[in-house]
Specification:
One of its GO terms (cellular component) is cytoplasm. Residues 17-52 form the RING-type domain. This is RING-type domain-containing protein. Keywords: Metal-binding, Zinc, Zinc-finger. InterPro entries: SINA-like_animal, Sina-like_RING, Znf_RING, Znf_RING/FYVE/PHD. The protein is elongated. A hairpin with a 4-residue loop joins strand 9 and strand 10 (163-171). The chain is an alpha+beta fold and 239 residues long. The chain has 2 domains: 4-70, Zinc/RING finger domain, C3HC4 (zinc finger) (Herpes Virus-1, 2-Layer Sandwich), CATH 3.30.40; 97-238, Apoptosis, Tumor Necrosis Factor Receptor Associated Protein 2, Chain A (Sandwich), CATH 2.60.210.10. It has helices spanning 4-14, 39-42, 61-69, 86-92, 109-119, 218-221; strands at residues 29-30, 36-37, 72-73, 82-83, 97-99, 106-108, 129-132, 138-146, 149-158, 163-171, 181-188, 193-200, 213-217, 225-226, 229-238. The chain contains 6 helices and 15 strands. Helices cover 19% and strands 33% of the residues. The strands form 5 sheets. Strands 7, 11, 12, 14 and 15 form a 5-stranded antiparallel β-sheet that branches. Strands 8-9-10-13 form a 4-stranded antiparallel β-sheet.
Amino acid sequence: MVDSEKVLQSIIEIATCPVCYTRLNVSSALCVNGHAVCSDCDDNLSQCPICSASFSQEKHTILSQIIASLPSICSHKGCSLLTMDLEYHEKWCGYRPTNCVRCSWSGQAKELKTHVTNNHQLASTNIERTCFLFQGNINRSYARVQFGQVFWEKTMSNSKLKTFSIQLIWVPNGEIEEDVFQMKVEFTSKEKSYVANTKIKFVPKDSADTENSLIFHTDILKHYEESNILTYKLYLTKE
């Protein structure tokens, strides 16, 4: 009996560039003896790396159609999933490399939840926090585990720019989560309160300080501080 998965795996390996080991694409070049390289490597080669023959200028429509119809293999170490939508899979893949912002640990995304739970104090949910708003630059990072997902909660105070920002970075653990998350921040004083919110987008890599952030000018927040201490609550909900 033919093992169709092994056959497909063999075809995918054949459809791999012998120079850079990436998938051949529809613009791949063939030499006159039939050896193929990807279009990127073809731009830097004057002859075939296998047999030293010249490259053919003919179009190989059938080969291009076969390559286009093949699934892709996840590039993350430890994951061998075949998928027709590589970009979507690798966005959620639990084998995607990541690192801890609290220590030197690095590993796979699916291991991050266990690491932060066992090694770091987690950010409490929906509990008041305090920050010394007007005492120089302050950067704090906490791991927040909620809805089975891991978020990095970062607070940054910049005395030069007179800003205070709160950022959530979402690190999926391999389970596809289509729900939309929303962050809400509430500043309170004895007499009044101020609420701001934003949707949390998926951020697969290190993000800029403005991604998934709420940024406030301290001239506004000074109305909610007491003795230079700012009190606020951060809520994370699903829409």
